[in-house]
Inverse folding.
């Protein structure tokens, strides 16, 4: 048990140090949500009538936080591909620690990095005219943490099946962008056709962004929310457990 906890700590510390040293990675991952928030959101605010009682830029703010978490969490799992190519993964697999500790350590490291980036985006709320209390900020960070863990676990699960950066990048483009556009980040999912609504309901990001909307807009639930908050939290937690269990089983088969 102690060796597993040490393994989790070492993995999280290693990935965090790598993130701190790679300043270009931080800048590049923050550039995408900032462009979407101020360029796309700002432009669409002039075209979309404010029927929902708020500017479009404010409406997509929870979705932009979700976007930051999605890209950061999923792409943090690239470290697994890196570890495979340079042999570090073999060293971890032969170490006297459980596969569960490796998967949880990787997921927690992705959670830490993603939550920090989500916090940076969250602190922009005064610029777009939002007013958030300290309790709201705390709840948004709490949702960000569990959503980051869920999506990091999904990224780890996907990364276990790939051996090179090239194949992983192609697959991620076919998964990450559809996940974002089918999450309700840019528009209410109630407006989508029934066929696409099915895919939104099997997308864990949908429930994460819906939960974030609860925290950002606590007084405008009928206009912005699609599911009960209890359902949002339950889906994210259960999805996290499923992703971790499957990822651990895949690692076990690679003994």
């Amino acid at each position: 048990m102690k060796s597993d906890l040490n393994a989790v700590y070492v993995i999280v510390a290693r990935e965090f140090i790598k993130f701190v040293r790679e300043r270009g990675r931080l800048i590049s991952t923050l550039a995408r949500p900032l462009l979407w928030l101020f360029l796309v959101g700002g432009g669409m605010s002039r075209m979309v009538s404010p029927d929902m009682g708020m500017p479009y830029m404010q409406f997509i703010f929870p979705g932009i936080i979700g976007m930051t978490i999605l890209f950061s969490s999923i792409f943090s799992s690239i470290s697994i591909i890196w570890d495979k190519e340079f042999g570090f993964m073999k060293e971890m697999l032969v170490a006297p620690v459980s596969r569960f500790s490796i998967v949880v350590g990787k997921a927690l490291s992705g959670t830490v990095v993603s939550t920090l980036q989500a916090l940076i985006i969250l602190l922009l709320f005064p610029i777009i005219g939002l007013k958030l209390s300290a309790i709201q900020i705390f709840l948004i960070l709490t949702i960000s943490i569990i959503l980051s863990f869920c999506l990091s676990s999904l990224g780890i699960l996907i990364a276990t099946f790939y051996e090179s950066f090239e194949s992983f990048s192609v697959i991620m483009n076919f998964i990450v962008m559809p996940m974002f556009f089918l999450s309700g980040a840019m528009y209410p999912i109630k407006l989508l056709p029934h066929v696409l609504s099915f895919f939104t309901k099997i997308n864990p990001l949908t429930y994460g962004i819906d939960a974030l909307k609860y925290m950002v807009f606590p007084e405008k639930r009928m206009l912005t929310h699609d599911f009960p908050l209890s359902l949002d939290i339950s889906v994210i937690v259960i999805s996290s457990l499923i992703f971790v269990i499957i990822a651990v089983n895949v690692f076990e088969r690679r003994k």
About this structure: Residues 134-159 form the longest helix (26 residues).
